[in-house]
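Quick start: what a row looks like.
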Amino acid sequence: MPVKYRIPITAITVFGTSSLLAITVGIVLYLGFGQAAESTRQLWAGQSETLIDAMEHSLAARLGPIRDQALWIAADIDDLSDLRALDDYMFGSLAATPQVAGIAVVTSTGQSRRWHRENRTAIEEDWSKQPWINEYLEQVEKIDNAAWREPIFTATVNSSTLLHDIALRDANGKFIGVFAQIVPIQELSRFLARNYSDTGVTPFVLYNRDFVLAHPAIFNGDELRPLPHIDDLGDLVLQRIWSPDEDAPYINSALDNTRASGIFWGDDFYLFLHRDLTDYGPAPWTIGAYLNTSLLAEKPGQQVMRGLAAGLVVLLLAVVASIVAGRKVSSPVKAMVRAAKAVEEGAFDSIEPLGSSHIRELDDAGNAFNNMVHGLRERKLIRDTLGRFVPQEVASSLLAGGGKLEVQQSEATILFCDIEAFTRLTENLGPVKIVEVLNAYFSRMVEILEQYGGVVTQFQGDAILVTFNVPIADPAHARNAVLAAQAMLTSVADSEYAGERLQIRIGINTGKVVAGAIGAKGRLNYTVHGDAVNLAARLEAMNKEYGTRLLMSETTVSQLPADELKPIGETTARGQTRSIKLYTLASLTNDQESE
């Protein structure tokens, strides 16, 4: 039976295809731009966290060595009877921390000696009559750890400075003085400005919310105000950080440990990103940055609406143009979906950058997605790189424990190694060359130690602290520690490091230790503690007295064959209640023993 009503193919092609294409394009645009808006939100949130994380890590990398050096010196100095005798030691310390402008030691009686980097001078003064000295000494004496103080104006460097100090105590734990270091705040500002000069962001560090500790435009303070007030800096944008126009930009809900806010300035929108730190003194530091962006000033839904309108205009112009536009829309979206699946699988290295598109919104979405992938790659690189700064075994334990590392108590063998005459070597070679020598020396020593199952827990200046049987169980830990020490001595005797000959001394002791992550919230360090660790360090120092390169305690040699040992003597080590029998290896050659 003939059909009464027939529809021209032109109508089907034009109206049917256009309608179907309109629905399809509308769905694609809705899903595509919805996903792009969410991806953009997550991207900005991720980049914001990464930016502030990088600033926090940069500050920690800049200021952390100051604290580590203070702890090392406090553990090494127990006699302040002759401050002049510390000159070489302190100038060597300045060489190891170029960010420090000067250091000082103040005795418990108010006698001081200061060492300055700029002209390499040492100044000794009597501060016992200063009205503030007794209160300051009492404050430091009450604190057992290193501490940052409130910023002060320091006349000797004519600058506002950060003050870091630690109490010095004698062998009996009696307070004998203070070791202090100063860092000019201009140095922090130059450091931040140098790191972020080409990023389009303005970094800053605020002290107690209202005072500027670091900023590219920082200037000298005065005695009445060591730090400039936020209103006096001249940065009109930063002045409004605590009175924003928008207190919760749309990325805020995706941030974990960072706050975001923003202000409108004419046609521009300035986004603030900031985080409070409590590890650097009596008042909190606020680290952050602001940037001028128009992305957050415009809601993602507006981009979607413009895309839909552009699609309808294309449909009205021509079916062919609609088909072409549809292909141009669907192809980038499909590529984005494929790339999104690769992101979900964690295959960041296999993701090719999304190509550009003639459609602005898709091009923006593609660029945003590319930036997101770049940010994820950087964050993955940061996570992978962190594994280089702790023992691999510790890193594996952290991953297995969800970021937690349980305290472990067990028997272990401790190896402590130090370079002979390192202070003199540092003075002769200078800071650049000594770092090159240390890197070559440490690289070779770590290879040897890892070969015998040793785990390097700390590099303390030129010293190496190594554990056997913790955190890796090793029934032959004492034997392996001795074999490692013998290999280290042989390597040092036969090798040069960056063109320099070295001599080392080693102490080995076996006993109970406690191993775990020690430190402050957000900044931990894996290490071992106990008398066994202290005795290993003291045995290393006793090599000077006995003219040896290697000394072992009787607890270590009890696990070794007697014919391999050479008794050295019996002595009483500081902090031990009983005498200790000392041994070295009978196989050590003359050139491996101290002269």
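That is the whole record. The chain has two domains: 69-298, 404-592. The two ends are 119 Å apart (CA to CA).
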